[in-house]
Amino acid sequence: MAILHKKHNANAGKRAGFLAGQALCVLVPAALAVWYVVGLVQKQPLQPVLYAALACAAVGAVLFRVFGNRSEILKSGIEGEKQAVDALKVLPYSYHVVSNPVYYINGRKAELDAVVIGKNGVCIVETKNHTGVITGRPQDEWWSQTKRRGTKHMKNPLLQVERQASILEQVLREAGCKCPVRQMVYFASKNARVSVRDSRIFVGDEALRKAIRAERETLSPSEVSAIVDALTWQKEKI
Amino acid sequence: MSITSKYYGRTKAGAEIYQYTLENANGMKVCVIEYGCIVTNVWVPDNGGVLRDVVLGYRELADYEAGTASLGSFVGRYANRIEKAQFTLNGKTYYLEPNDGANHLHGTFGRLTYQGSIVDDSLVLTGRSPDGDDGFPGNMDITVTYKLTDDNALVMDYTAVTDAPTIINLTNHTYFNLDGCDSGDVLHQELWLDADRFTEGNAETCPTGRILPVRGTPMDFTKPKAIGRDMDCGDEQLRMASGYDHNFVLNKDGGMLALGAIAKSPVSGIRMEMYTTQPGVQLYTGNFLANDGVPGKNGKPHTKHQGFCLETQHFPCTPSHPEFPSVTLAPDEEYHETTVYQFKTE
Q1: To 5 degrees, how large is the angle CA A41–CA A44–CA A47?
Q2: A131, A146, A193 member nearest B117 (Cβ)
Q3: Pairwise CA distance, residues B240 & B247, whole Å
Q4: Where would I find the NERD domain in this sequence (chain A) (predicted)?
Q5: Using CA atoms, how far apart are residues A189 and A130, in angstroms rounded to an integer?
Q6: Which fold, B2-345?
């Protein structure tokens, strides 16, 4: 089993925010409605409260749906990232897996899903839990995702992982570590039909682990240790 | 050439199924679903330029799951029959599911769910048949590739690998009707087969082991003739099978992709050429289509002889006839066969 360095998942916090927002969408109009009903029972109905309750209910219904959708997307992402960690922690003991690290350098920020550190270098694993038929070209900014409800666009994760790799390379340079950074995009869902051909894309767990282990081992244990320190203890530098 | 996809439905087992449409510069379109790698539609221009859907099919996924006629389906592990539903390989006897009387027919590949992906200008479908599936040994990884070229050729390419010695025979069970899928029977449509011999069948259409010349028999398609011309001549072979359901031995060197058949319709002017790497072709004239019980694309039941199949294959019941071309697959080998259906007009 690889050594796991678990960081706080920022998406979990964001999702909690959306769930709280959904709760407010229900509670605020409900509280106003109760206020109005109490006034009605006391034969002192407050018309403005009724109008406010109705307005809040209308806005709340829209927001409830928006927050719900966002929350579901984040939930799916979190599940995918968990699946990626489960796939990566089966790597041999000599590997370190850092989940959900955040790096800052020269005003740039990178929120990564997972970084794998081994004697054969550093791999960034960007996880996508998308389903359906995914088409596009490696150089396109947007890809298509066809699902039951039709086709929509998704950001090209290869461009995302390229940007992350450039930030991570800077972080390593700054820490005095020299090693290659490899980029990988892992589709966690069995229902993903990925039709984009690129050697950085992986659909199965085994293929991902095999690719991580495929590169020749060139780093010494002390070099690995220095990289692990640099990538697990980096302080905010903005 | 373009390939588009859309959601097609969900199987009873809960798997999401997508449909892919391959379209070429001439407007020819081929639709394929991930369930059974089934070819659901083949739209071909006739001699007036009007597109006709020349393959039989159903209206929706549930019908493909319920249907028993293997319409448009990819077929394996062993296309066609295995006598007494058993075979012996390396001294061990394997017992299969008897699903056609006492025999084993076709297997489950046509009911598996595959995962599609678009690779360049091809549709690639991958699936796995586990060790013991239907009684066959070895985990088998299967790749089915469909490609539509700009000269109206639908290329079907099958590869498979196994982790234990096994047997394999893959084909596609599309029923063609060159006048359109709901235009009546195919008995007037003409067929030429590059086959001087056929494997004689018994009452259960399993080969007796005798390979007979077609010359002078109703099996002779070496000169083009209407499929139904000799159907009712009283020939014992045709009577037993209620029509054609026979394996023809193609006149070609094994393994070479070569022209094996030409079918054409005098009504639509559509001509279909079939090329294959396989040694045989099963001509099946939809003798039991009316028994299927599931309505076709137009909502009406299929009728006898509404379509014909040219199932390219190794010979049926080969395990019982070691003199036939081998169907064994070892773990260090890759199975690879190709069949092409090319459409033209006259």
Answers
A1: 105
A2: A193
A3: 14
A4: 76-191
A5: 6
A6: Beta-galactosidase; Chain A, domain 5 (2.70.98)
Core vs surface per residue B128-141: b (16+ CB within 10 A) or e: ebeeebbbbbbbbe
Contact A148 B116 (CB under 8 A): no
| Cα–Cα distance for residue pair A76/A68, rounded to 1 Å | 12
Residues A23-68: tens digit of each pLDDT: 999 999 999 999 899 888 888 878 888 899 899 999 999 999 999 9
The domain ranges of chain B are 2-345
Maximum separation of any 2 CA atoms in chain B, in Å: 58
Q: Distance between CA B222 and CA B197 in Å, rounded?
A: 10
- The residue behind tokens 């039991």 is B288
Which of B83, B273, B311, B337 is catalytic? The answer is B311
Determine whether B314 is an active site residue: no
> What domains can be seen in chain A, in order of their start residue?
3-232 (3.40.91)
CB nearest A193 (choices: B6, B18, B120): B18
Tokens matching residue A157: 């994760």
Could you tell me which of A55, A87, A72, A78 has the C-alpha nearest to residue A211? A87
